[in-house]
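The protein record reproduced below.
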Amino acid sequence: MEFLEHNNDSVTVSLVNFSDPSPEIEILQYHRENLFPRNGGGRSTLSDSKGNLLFYTDGFDVFNKNHRVMENGYRLAYKGVREEYYHWGGGVNVPTYSGILPKPDSDSLCYIIYLSLFRDEVHYNSPRSFDVMYSIVDLEANDGLGKVIVKDSILLEGNFMISSIAPIRHANGRDWWIPVKHFLDPVWDVFLLDPEGLRLHRTVAMEDFQEFYARLVLYNYSTDEFVYLSGDHYYPYTANIDRPIEHNFHVFDFDRCTGSFTFNRTFDISILGSKFHAKTLAIEPNGQYMYASTGGNMFQFDLHAENVQSTKDTILKYREPEWVDRGVYEPRFIPNGELWITTWAKRMIGVLKNPELPADQVNIAEEPIEVTQLIQGHFPNNANYRHGPIDGSPCDTLGIDNLPKAWFRYNKMNLEQYQRRFTDISYFRPETWHWDFDDGTTFDGREPGIHEFPGPGEYYVCLTVSNENAEDTYCEWVIVEGPSSVEEELEERGYSIYPNPTRGAMTLQLTQSTSIPSELRVYDMRGVLLRNFQYEAGRDRFDIDLRGMASGMYMVEWKSEEEVIVERVIIK
């Protein structure tokens, strides 16, 4: 993923590599040479399996991995709105009108699929498209910098909605579907990209369904459904008064074997707005919660509810938190399941840590991600490569199986000192989950939720997932911080047991000496007594010898007639 800023002398590029659970941003700066990547919508990127950038488009030109215009990559579909805005750095404020896909069974050829853009004669600010087009890039040309070898080839002429390039993986696990809806008619032209190339596969028309203008389209990967935002408005701008704004959503089942549409349901929501209708939308990977941004605020809706409107809950407000001082623009789920949020013309990205939870449990990162450039709205429109085949389906004919990949993320927001919330983000259809927290405890199931470690230390947490095809394990060191010193822990808790974890020798330290005898017992996790220590009065330090005991978790109980302390400890 890339973000861009330009001035008279240079272009600044921020690259984000999502192959790690905690993405990092790399800042690059290049001398400006005539043309530069634009902000706005229409951008799409392609990287290799390790996250290395291969090339990208801003919807106007094609750029190589060195951020220079690729050979023959100038001026895609240079007419209409593109010609009007070609030399404007902000690009066009239209989402998802282009996308990049690798050609199946090819190591070097890629397709850029895009729409021509023209202003509507009646609704000037609502562009429409008259052409579905593509270009082909050969990545091996020019010593790996690439070349556009086919440019502006017209797949189909017609009258199309603009925000409609949403490539979906074919159920065979190799090919791609690209459905494009007509401007008003309930008609879809469904294109197929396979080893033979890109072509129109079928046209789906729903004769009994009403006309509707779809401003935004989402795909629910959990349920294989297309979700279209419609209504009686063309452009998301209203008068500057607070009033309820009605939104109609039409949901269609999509058959990934045949590329066909079937109507499923319609639901409506109403949002109080002072300027914009819902400008941008996102559905979390589990398919339950939808996030809608109006430009000023962002809301959460539960798509599993019978009455979706009744579940509306506010996540972000204008200027709440402070980094939303120019309003919320686009929410976008990244591969680790977090929700990143752009704000208009700001140098930062907000982060929702647990967007798969109900609104009252969603954790908003205290500090946004800072980048060096002004972000003008849209994230790149990239395909979901973790949407695997449908094993056992009629089109499961290529021998491509879902081989599950284990992955998880964790955070400590709004939790106690030794607690961490773990979230499964594995993909390719895992059926079983086994967690090992390296503290003597395990959990079987997808979501362990909040796990409490026995004390400070470094824990090698592992998640193993499997299905009928394969098994995979992912491990990560989880650092659990304790008080910065024994003195600090004594002040906070009145006692300290350290080191924990240990390799055999531990110490219990109290804030003051005991006035009566005391006893310390060590139990295994089944409650079986393993060791017993007796101490005379007048001590504030108790050395505990656990050498010779097996690695694992144990319970230590120290007690006198006046006080009892119980603590979990780990022997490495």
Remarks:
- The CA atoms of residues 8 and 386 lie 40 Å apart.
- The chain has a mean pLDDT of 86.
- DSSP finds three helices and 40 strands in the chain.
- Residues 486-493 form the longest helix (8 residues).
